[in-house]
Amino acid sequence: MSEKTLPAVTLTGEPFERGQIHGETFSAEVRENVERYLSLFAHYGTDRDEVLEEAIKYLEVIDEHNEAYGDEIRGIAEGSDLPVPQIALLNARYEVVYSAYRDEAEDETVSGETAGEGARYTDGCTSFGVRPDVTADGRAYIGENWDWNVGVADQVVVTRVRGTDGLNHVAITEAGIVGGKMGVNEAGIGLAVNGLVTPTDGKTPYRKPFHVRCREVLSTDRFANAIGAVIDTDRTCSGNFVLGHREGEILNLETAPETVNYRYPEAGILTHANHFEGDAAESTLERIIPHSLVRGPRLRRLLATERGAIDVDIIKRTLRDHFDKPSSICHHADPKTAPIEREQTNVSVIADLEERTLHATAGPPCEHTYETYHCPT
Ligand SMILES: [Zn+2]
Asked: Do residues 73 and 216 share a domain?
C-alpha cells in the first residue's frame, strides 16, 4: 500500500483571501494543473487562445451568478502568481471545451462528433449513497471513486473551508478549482458527482458552471437549497449530482442542459455511473466508456449483499472491486491507451454525513489507504 496521502489546506476569511491561501499553498500544483489541461485541450485539437478567451467570458458568467466565487478565483490567481484567465479556465473546464466544437458542429446532427468530443473531457466515476436503515451504525454515507486523467492525480487537494460566507465544509478538489467535487459541510450535507454527456451539451454556452453549483451545494444549511443550486437554472453541460443529508435523505440528480431526472435510493441504496438511467435526455457517454453500464449496478449488488451490516470497511471493500479490470469500479490505467489519455481512480472517497468527515485515498483504493479529513468547526 502506498503511503501517499492528499495534501490539505484550511482556507479562512473573505473569498479573495481564501483564494490567496489556496494559490500560495498549492502554487506548483495549480501551475501544473493549468499546463495539464492546456496540454489535454491541445492533444484533442482545441486551440489554446480560444479556450482562454472562452474562460474570460465564463468568469463574467460566474461573477453574475456568484460574486464570491469570482473573487476566490482572482485570489487563487494572485496567490499562485498566474493570470486570472488560466484560473477561470480550470473552474469552467467542463464548459469551455465545447467552444471549439460549437461553431463547426452547428450543421451536424446530434450524436456523432459532438457527443464524442465532449466525452473526451468528462470524468468517469462510480458513486453511491446508503441510507441509515441499511448501515450497521445507522448513519448515512455517500461517496465515489473519482476516475479521471492520471496526469491530474498529483494536483488533487483537500480544502477545509472556514469562510465569512456560506457554511464551513471539507471538500476534494483540483488545485486551482474553488468548488469541491466531493465534500460534506457542517450541516451534514454531502456531495458526490459523475460525468454525463448528451448530444446537446455545449450547445448553449455561458450558463452557471458545474463547479459553481458544487460550491453552492456545500455552502448551504438547507437540503432544498442544495437541490436548487443544481437545478435552479439551465446548464451548459450535463452532470450527475448525488446529494445526501445526515438525517438520511439521499437524492440523485441526473442533469442534462435543460432537463433533469430525479432518482432515489431503492431499498436504501443508490448507485450511479456515467450514463443517464432516466429518459429525460439522450445518453451518450457509455458509447465511449461502455463499462459504465456495469459499474453502477455491480456496486449496488455488492452493497446490497451487506444490507444492514454496511459500514466504512465494507464500503471500502466494494470500492476496491476489480471486475473487468482495468475498467473496474477500482479503475486502473489501460496500458493500451495513449499515456496522455490514461485514466484511473484518482480519489476514492466516503463521506460520513453524521461525523462530517471524508475518508479519502490519493489513488486507486486497492493501492492507497484512506485518510480522514474533518469539516472545520
Ligand atoms: Zn485497484
From this structure: no
| Cα 271 to ligand 1 centre (Å) | 19
Q: For residue range 84-111, list pLDDT tens digits in order.
A: 999 999 999 999 988 766 654 444 433 4
Contact indicator for 4, 363 with CB cutoff of 8 Å: yes
- Pairwise CA distance, residues 90 & 95, whole Å: 10
The total number of structural domains that make up the chain: 2
Domain CATH code at residue 299: 3.60.60.10
Q: Are residues 167 and 34 in the same domain?
A: no
Predicted confidence (pLDDT) per residue in 225-276, tens digit: 999 999 999 999 999 999 999 999 999 999 999 999 999 999 999 999 999 9
- pLDDT for residue 102: 60
Phi and psi dihedrals of 296, rounded to 5?
Answer: -60, -55
Q: What one-letter code names the amino acid at 48? A: R
- CATH number (domain holding residue 27): 1.10.439
The neighbour count for residue 371, using CB atoms within 10 Å, is 15
In DSSP notation, 55-103 reads: HHHHHHHHHHH-HHHHHHHHHHHHHHT--HHHHHHHHTHHHHTTHHHHH
Q: How far is the CA of 346 from the centre of ligand 1 (A)?
A: 11
Domain with 26 in it: 14-116
Please measure the distance between the N-terminal and C-terminal CA atoms of the chain and give it in whole angstroms.
Answer: 31
Residues 70 and 109 in one domain: yes
CA 320 – ligand 1 centroid, Å: 6
C-beta neighbour count of 5 within 10 angstroms = 16
Q: How far is the CA of 290 from the centre of ligand 1 (A)?
A: 19
Cα of 24 vs centre of ligand 1, distance in Å, is 33
The CA 286 to ligand 1 mean position distance, Å, reads: 21
